[in-house]
């Protein structure tokens, strides 16, 4: 393994570890100490801030995926080499498992058992099918934001990509947490599932996010990063200007 892959892998490991330890830990705390659900905003902010800060700090090293669904989106659009994608998946799932193991060790058994170690769960009346759809849609929003801010050169400045990505997670969690836990990330589910041995409806948090991530990546890649026609003209601040006569004739 070369030094660059090691540096990238450590960054992905730290970012994913942060999400599960902080985001998952916040979910456990609310489930135990505020069971009425009054702190949904706090959980959403914990998850969004965890990823937003890590993307800002480590995104220039690894790209700041911290999510196998995002890495898969980069892979299917040929924006990451196959070997590096596999390495990212290994360290992402490994970071999630270690974070869940640490939560298991530091939390009292009564707390852990009451909250199932923060394993995402389907809400009352939500079955597996709708759960997959909700997770896919939430992940679609997240990956669209990632591509629009961190990939598209015409998008928002990369220095603030972490802010946009973090806020995308916040609004996803505020909507989806009561229904599916709003994992949007197979690693977010895998760590607590593995350590806590809670696998009910496990596939919801793999099929949904992976499908949503792939669809979002392909949509943005095909429509905006590889346009078949000139982009529509917009205000000067958009960077999309009127084509010159020569360009218009060529098109």
Summarize the structure.
The chain has 251 residues and is mostly helical. The protein is built from 10 helices and no strands.
* Helical proportion, percent range: over 70%
Number of domains: 1
Report the radius of gyration as a whole number of Å.
Answer: 19 Å
Q: How far do the termini sit from each other?
A: 46 Å
Anisotropy-based shape: globular
Structural class by helix and strand composition:
mainly alpha
Relative strand content: under 5%
Q: What is the third-level CATH name, the topology?
A: Glycerol uptake facilitator protein
Number of alpha- plus pi-helical segments: 10
CATH class: Mainly Alpha
Low-confidence runs (pLDDT<50, min 5 residues)? Answer: 247-251
User: Could you state the CATH homologous superfamily?
Assistant: Glycerol uptake facilitator protein
Named at the architecture level, the CATH assignment is Up-down Bundle
Order of helices and strands: HHHHHHHHHH
Roughly what is the average pLDDT, rounded to an integer? Answer: 89
Major beta sheet, specifics?
none
> Got a strand count?
0
């Amino acid at each position: 393994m070369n030094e660059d892959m090691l540096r990238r892998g450590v960054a992905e490991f730290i970012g994913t570890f942060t999400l599960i330890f902080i985001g998952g830990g916040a979910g456990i705390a609310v489930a135990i100490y505020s069971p009425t659900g009054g702190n949904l905003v706090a959980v959403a902010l914990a998850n969004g801030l965890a990823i937003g800060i890590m993307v800002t700090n480590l995104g220039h090293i690894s790209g700041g995926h911290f999510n196998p669904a995002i890495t898969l989106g980069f892979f299917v659009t040929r924006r990451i080499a196959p070997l590096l994608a596999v390495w990212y998946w290994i360290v992402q799932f490994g970071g999630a498992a270690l974070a869940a193991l640490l939560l298991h060790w530091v939390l009292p058994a009564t707390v852990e058992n009451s909250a199932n170690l923060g394993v995402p769960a389907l809400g009352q009346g939500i079955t597996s099918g709708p759960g997959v759809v909700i997770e896919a849609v939430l992940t679609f929003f997240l990956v669209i934001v990632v591509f629009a801010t961190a990939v598209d050169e015409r998008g928002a400045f990369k220095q603030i990509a972490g802010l946009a990505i973090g806020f995308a997670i916040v609004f996803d969690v505020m909507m989806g947490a009561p229904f599916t836990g709003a994992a949007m990330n197979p690693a977010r589910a895998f760590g607590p599932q593995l350590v806590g041995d809670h696998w009910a409806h496990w596939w919801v948090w793999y099929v949904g996010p992976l499908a949503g991530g792939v669809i979002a990546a392909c949509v943005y890649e095909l429509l905006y990063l590889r346009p078949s026609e000139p982009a529509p003209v917009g205000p000067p601040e958009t960077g999309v200007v009127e084509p010159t006569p020569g360009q218009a004739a060529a098109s």
